[in-house]
Amino acid sequence: MNNNVRIVIAGPRGRMGKEAVKLVQEVENFELVAVIDRKNNGMMLSDVEGLPNVAVPIYSDIAECLGNVPADVLIDLTIPETGYVHTKTALQHGVRPVVGTTGFTKEQLTELKSLAEEKEIGCIIAPNFAIGAILMMKFSQMAAKYFPNVEILELHHDNKLDAPSGTAIKTAEMIAENRPEQKQGHPDEKETIQGARGADFEGMRIHSVRLPGLVAHQQVQFGAEGESLTIRHDSYNRASFMSGVKMSVDTVMNLNTLVYGLDNIIN
Ligand SMILES: NC(=O)C1=CN([C@@H]2O[C@H](COP(=O)(O)OP(=O)(O)OC[C@H]3O[C@@H](n4cnc5c(N)ncnc54)[C@H](O)[C@@H]3O)[C@@H](O)[C@H]2O)C=CC1
Ligand SMILES: O=C(O)C1=N[C@H](C(=O)O)C[C@H](O)C1
């Protein structure tokens, strides 16, 4: 009997998608069975120049793909609108999504969780797959209990579509569990240029930097009387995310609900 985990990857030409294709080829019991790409519908991955020499079909339409190709897991690394449609369609087809795509709304997450539970299958939506980033979020959540004054600075490459990053939003949500809502800075402070104080999440500020040369970085900065604490994580390449992708594929096979964030998996 073949016990391989049969995997479809959406976004195989992207920065993350390329790494994920490599990962799936490297792991013994993972098997790439198809990819979903905006371009090259009907071709084989191995026929497209610059892509890995793997003889699997390319589909542009996820429903057609999952209707034709038996699969266990969808890894989605695309863009927010597409990622949501792909996740929903995968769940409807009984295929377990592992989603790295960021920018989902709260309403979308709630809807997808209900769908996963209705279908009784696993789904992981992970704003960040890097183990160090998960620890950075957890350490920040711990620190917020003692340091309620905090600002989040996230720094990314300038091809990123969403701001703030999914990681920054998830960090703020985790911190908010340990920090009563409070406005920071001077009560009468005014922005003389709009946006100067960053985005406001329950009174904590999130600042987004976009520059060529960066990959994915975040600094959570706490301040108190006479001291400060900075918790920082840096991803220098996309390979840094792949151990988390592997862990998610392994884990999603044994879940029957949606898990949002690897902080719920790494104890
Ligand atoms: N969870 C995590 O650890 C990480 C998440 N990300 C997120 O992953 C996503 C992808 O990031 P990158 O690879 O850097 O972006 P990218 O822009 O390099 O790749 C996105 C790919 O999605 C494809 N795509 C868009 N619409 C599609 C559709 N309808 N069907 C098939 N493919 C489609 C594009 O053609 C492109 O190849 C982003 O949302 C990003 O925020 C990125 C890095 C780490
Ligand atoms: O777009 C990226 O690159 C990244 N996106 C994720 C996010 O929005 O947090 C994860 C990581 O920061 C890289």
UniProtKB/TrEMBL annotation:
Name the residues that span the membrane. Answer: none
Stretches assigned to the Dihydrodipicolinate reductase C-terminal domain: 132-265
Recorded GO MF terms:
4-hydroxy-tetrahydrodipicolinate reductase
Q: In which pathway does it act?
A: Amino-acid biosynthesis; L-lysine biosynthesis via DAP pathway; (S)-tetrahydrodipicolinate from L-aspartate: step 4/4
Q: Where does (S)-2,3,4,5-tetrahydrodipicolinate bind?
A: 157, 166-167
Record-listed NADP(+) binding positions: 39
Q: Which UniProt keywords apply?
A: Amino-acid biosynthesis, Cytoplasm, Diaminopimelate biosynthesis, Lysine biosynthesis, NAD, NADP, Oxidoreductase
Q: What class of enzyme is it?
A: oxidoreductase
Please give the catalytic activity noted in the UniProt record. Answer: (S)-2,3,4,5-tetrahydrodipicolinate + NAD(+) + H2O = (2S,4S)-4-hydroxy-2,3,4,5-tetrahydrodipicolinate + NADH + H(+); (S)-2,3,4,5-tetrahydrodipicolinate + NADP(+) + H2O = (2S,4S)-4-hydroxy-2,3,4,5-tetrahydrodipicolinate + NADPH + H(+)
Q: What EC number is given for this enzyme?
A: 1.17.1.8
Stretch forming the signal peptide: none
Q: Please list the residues that bind NAD(+).
A: 11-16, 100-102, 126-129
Coiled coil start-end: none
Under the heading Pfam families, the entry gives: DapB_C, DapB_N
- CDD domains associated with the record: DHDPR_N
Hey, which family's this protein in?
Answer: Belongs to the DapB family.
Q: How does it assemble?
A: Homotetramer.
- Job description of the protein: Catalyzes the conversion of 4-hydroxy-tetrahydrodipicolinate (HTPA) to tetrahydrodipicolinate.
Q: What is this protein called?
A: 4-hydroxy-tetrahydrodipicolinate reductase
